[in-house]
Amino acid sequence: MVSPTKGIFKCFSSSKGGGIATFIMEKEMMNYPEAIRHLCKLYSIEFLETESTNEEKLLAQHKESLFIITKTANEYYKANLNYFQEVLNYVYGERQLTAETIQKFEIGFGPATVSGLTNQLINNGFNWKLAVEASVLGYLPEKNKLYDKFRNRVMFPIKNIAGNIIGFGGRIMVKDDNMAKYVNSSDSIIYNKSEALYGIYEAKKSISEKNQCLLTEGYLDVIMFHQKGVENTVASAGTALTTEQVKLIKRFTKNVVVMFDGDLPGLKAALRGIDVLLPEGMNVKVLILPDGQDPDDFAKARTQEQIENYISENAVDFVLFKLQHLLRMAADNIALRGEAIEDVVSSIAKMPSAIQREIYLSQCANISKINIEMLHTTLKKYTAEQVVFNVAAPQSFYGQFVSSKNFIQKQCERKILQYILAYGSLELTFKEVLLDKAGMIGQQTYKEVNFDAKRTVLDKVIYELENDGIHFLNLTFSYIYDKAKSVDLRDFNSLRNVLSEETFLLANEMRNEELNGNKNVLTATGGIIKPGEVPELHLILQNAIRQNLLFYKTVYIECLIEEESKKDKPNKQNVKHYIDLMIRIKKELNT
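User: That's the sequence. What structure does it adopt?
Assistant: Structure tokens below.
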């Protein structure tokens, strides 16, 4: 029941009720801020976030600009779908898609023309730099030429949970060894392939209602399952399953069925994916499709009822599946059987629930005929190592900020970028205390090199970070950093030519914030400091930049420790070495 005058609803079957925001939250599976944004967009109401910083507002505007471009590009692709008979033959004939399915997933076609979309966007006043950033256009700087990125490909828009188009996947219709089967959008501030799931917007309601998510690999697999009525299906779309994707699924259910066709590479991929799912407390089953069929072929040949019955009858708990598969591969080889059992126990150790771990250990003992006390001993080894990994970073310096992703992105990276934007061309004498590159990638020994070196601030950052393979985690900061390296920072306005307008405004604001913070000692003309003019500021910058870069290295090493801990068989020597590096850098921070 809906009362328009009171602005409320009531569902008597589920006992749910409330206002319009609650209704949108329930219907669209959104949280409260997402629901309010959705309503404002729907009714063209300005959405004001009074507590947002100028930086956050500019970033939101930047994202909205990219969303408008991806939506416009998708309208172009959809309009072209019906103009080419060979495309219609492919989607309706070969792929057996219905008009309703095509409309639901907004499938389109990027023609072979080099500049069809380019001309349409430019003629309608769109910023070409934003279109390149949104990954719908490409740019050849040596020829100063724009071109359509997706050509002669069936187009699959990728949406976020709110239904905004964040990227695209383009598939060729005819196999060609000289062309990639799929071309996907590049990462941007609205699209990160490691955080996106294809079909999540279309599937979220069904996942929540069925309390189960079916996980497959490709766009067409998802589309065919939806067409057959099995709408709780999503795909990682060509990437290995990540923790971020698992957390997205977890918003709607903790129950996941991983599907694959049963070939050996597929089996290995499924096992790796399971180990990503387990630390998030997910209940995982695996489903082997019959006769080596891929999910698309499997769904085509069956009705919704047959598909759902097959899943309920054949989905196997991950412990049983992994153990039986590995024991079957080991056959009568005693050493391999021992490794297989230990591999399964290492997966069980990733589960956060002690009760679940105990249940799975009992199952493992029954199947493998191994004494459960022996399995407990093995489990303790892996759980103890995980504790070591979690506390490895010394908590005394900079407190708990070491493990704070928000601090990394909003403080450390932002400050380093501010130094580049404000003083990038300034030459300073830095005290170098360098842990060489071999030490940063897991070798067992390293060298300390102490020397003084004259470098510009930009060169110092490049030298310290890039030589060690360390990269900004924040996509916006990384984007500005990459562009800053390509221009002469003595003329800050040169950045205007390589950044979008919104991003340039953000960079300028950050630069001014840094310059204003040092106005008491800054005596420079046009923001350019002349060597020797302000020794106080030189000394401040030398020490501050060095401290920030050393601290950022500790963050990087902490990530290495975390990655090593997720491996089936972590290398204890590597972990010991990483911890030693952390301690040594801490000492340098205190000098």
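Residues 535-565 form the longest helix (31 residues).
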